[in-house]
Amino acid sequence: MENGVDINDEEVLRIVMFPWLAMGHLIPFLHLSTNLATKGHRISFISTAGNLRRLPQIPPHLSPLITFISLPFPAIPHLPPNAESSMDAPHHQAQLLKIAFDFLKQSLSDFLEKISPNPDWIIYDYASHWLPGLAAEMGVSCAYFSLFSAATMVFIGPPAEVLSGDCVRSSEEDFTVVPKWVKMESEIVYRVHEMTKYMEGSEGNQSGMHCRRRYS
After folding, report:
1. Which of 45, 91, 105, 177 is most buried by a 10 A CB count?
2. Is 92 among the residues known to form the active site?
């Protein structure tokens, strides 16, 4: 028993959490962290300093099991100062935020190389398309924690088709029809105005990795 949490050292997992730079992702990852900590697992929750400061306090009895790790936020030209999350930057600059996020790869790698023993798991978000490869190099298991509904994932498309380029859609109108890979009858589609923000945030390819490929 440690601080009111039942712990069996042989069953304790060391888990790294690495969410995307948005409060709508950081908060669910934090909720998952607290749930895992109640089972006695030890959590390293990783983000940038500005984002970590915005998180709600965790229950005091779980604080020994959840460690917040701050990575330096990279300077990206044309990204507003201190814009460390999606709430700090307009939608049309979302690609710049993804560039910053991809630059965190080296800092995360440096952190993982220093900790001993290696973590048992890394739980990652949709944007870090490079993380499974990094985890494989280190011999660490990883798991994708999806915060998107099944309907959203269906509209993005089957991973094989997305990666091959067979389901490319370039306009809001492309999402107002039932996708060709949905074989059953369905009336579930997006309206044009619902896709506006998504298209603004995914327009272009400045980060070198299109959003639809990150989702896959």
Report:
1. 45
2. no
The order of strands in the sheet holding 14-18 is 66-71, 42-48, 14-18, 121-124, 141-144
What's the mean pLDDT in 154-178? 76
- Out of 144, 162, 185, pick the residue that ends a domain: 144
How far is residue 126's CA from residue 122's CA, in Å, rounded to a whole number?
13
Query: Over the stretch 98-139, which tens digit does the pLDDT of each residue have?
Result: 999 999 999 999 999 998 889 999 999 999 989 999 999 999
Q: What is the pTM of this model?
A: 0.81
Examine the domain organization and report whether 16 and 110 are in the same domain: yes
Indicate the SS3 state at residue 144: strand
Q: Does residue 188 surpass a pLDDT of 60?
A: yes
Domain boundary among 91, 123, 144: 144
Q: Same structural domain for residues 57 and 137?
A: yes
Confirm whether 56 is domain-assigned: yes
Active-site position among 6, 9, 25, 102: 25
Of the residues 125, 129, 174, 193, only one is catalytic, namely 125
Range(s) of the domain holding residue 169: 150-215
User: Alpha-carbon distance 165 to 174, whole Å?
Assistant: 15
Q: Is 125 a catalytic residue?
A: yes
